[in-house]
Automatic annotation (TrEMBL):
ATP-binding is among the record's keywords: yes
Natural source organism: Microbulbifer aestuariivivens
InterPro entries for this protein: Cyt_trans-like, NadD/NMNAT, Rossmann-like_a/b/a_fold
Reaction equations catalysed: nicotinate beta-D-ribonucleotide + ATP + H(+) = deamido-NAD(+) + diphosphate
Protein name: Probable nicotinate-nucleotide adenylyltransferase
EC number: 2.7.7.18
Cited Gene3D superfamilies: HUPs (3.40.50.620)
Residue ranges occupied by any Cytidyltransferase-like domain in the UniProt entry: 10-187
Length: 221
């Protein structure tokens, strides 16, 4: 039998701000799929949505506080350092150049993100570079037809493929559903209500100390 590949996972997001939906998803995926690393990957300037409500530096700091001393999760801030518009395909090409062809890379996302895949920059290249691990998200359904449905039927694979192949498969997973969104967190703060228990206390403290998300403009992204 061949040795399993070393496998790293990336979990990309705007993290505006990071919340327990993100953190549980990342931790459960790392444990369930035995990734050697699970890197949280904040995007700098996503083109597909409005600019984040707060700066990259604040989002980076909130992630660092959220991860704290959790050894299972790490922060990869390459997209913030690269600056400019953020495209996942650029990040994956950079990582492939850095880490080589034989390592397995999985890009993790919620189902809402997968549904937008055909609008991502050079999306057809993504599966040459990485696997996609997709987690169900309350309120979102798998499509029954169209490009994403076809992609799922041609690329779906068992978990063992993530360590057997470097890229190219899609794994769909059901996990603890946590109906939390960063939009809801921002809206609560803008209305003067508490988002406590939706995100780590250290992140909430940082938001309060820095007066983040207090205006409707910052919350309505
Ligand atoms: N509660 C959740 N359960 C499962 N996946 C989630 C959850 N929240 C976010 N995700 C996934 O995490 C990734 C990054 O999400 P993002 O940072 O945009 O958070 P968000 O809560 O969706 O933010 P916003 O409300 O601002 O759109 C996306 O792939 C998204 O699908
Ligand atoms: O590369 C793209 O065109 C692209 C389009 C939409 C989303 N993404 C990535 O998908 C991840 C989740 O996006 P979001 O908007 O839910 O934070 C994040 O890492 C984004 O950079 C990437």
């Amino acid at each position: 039998m061949t040795e399993p590949l070393r496998a790293i996972a990336l979990f990309g997001g705007t993290f505006d701000p990071v919340h327990f939906g993100h953190l549980r998803m990342a931790l459960e995926l790392r444990e369930a799929l035995h990734f050697d690393e699970m890197r949280l990957l904040p995007s700098h300037q996503p083109r597909h949505r409005q600019s984040p409500g707060v700066s990259s530096a604040h989002r980076r700091q909130m992630l660092a506080l959220a991860i704290g001393d959790c050894a299972e999760l790490t922060l990869d801030d390459r997209e913030l350092r690269r600056g400019g518009d953020t495209y996942t395909v650029d990040t994956l090409e950079e990582l492939r150049a850095e880490l080589g062809e034989s390592l397995s890379i999985s890009f993790c996302m919620g189902l809402d993100s997968l549904l937008t895949l055909p609008r991502w920059h050079r999306w057809q290249r993504l599966l040459d570079l990485a696997h996609l691990v997709v987690v169900a998200r309350p309120g979102w359904q798998l499509p029954s037809q169209g490009e994403v449905a076809e992609l799922i039927s041609s690329r779906s694979a068992p978990p063992s493929d993530l360590r057997r192949l470097p890229a190219g498969r899609i794994l769909l997973r059901e996990q603890t559903p946590l109906p939390i969104s960063a939009t809801a967190v921002r809206q609560l703060i803008a209305r003067g209500q508490s988002p406590r228990f939706l995100l780590p206390d250290a992140v909430l403290e940082y938001i309060e100390d820095n007066g983040l998300y207090r205006t409707a403009a910052a919350s309505d992204r």
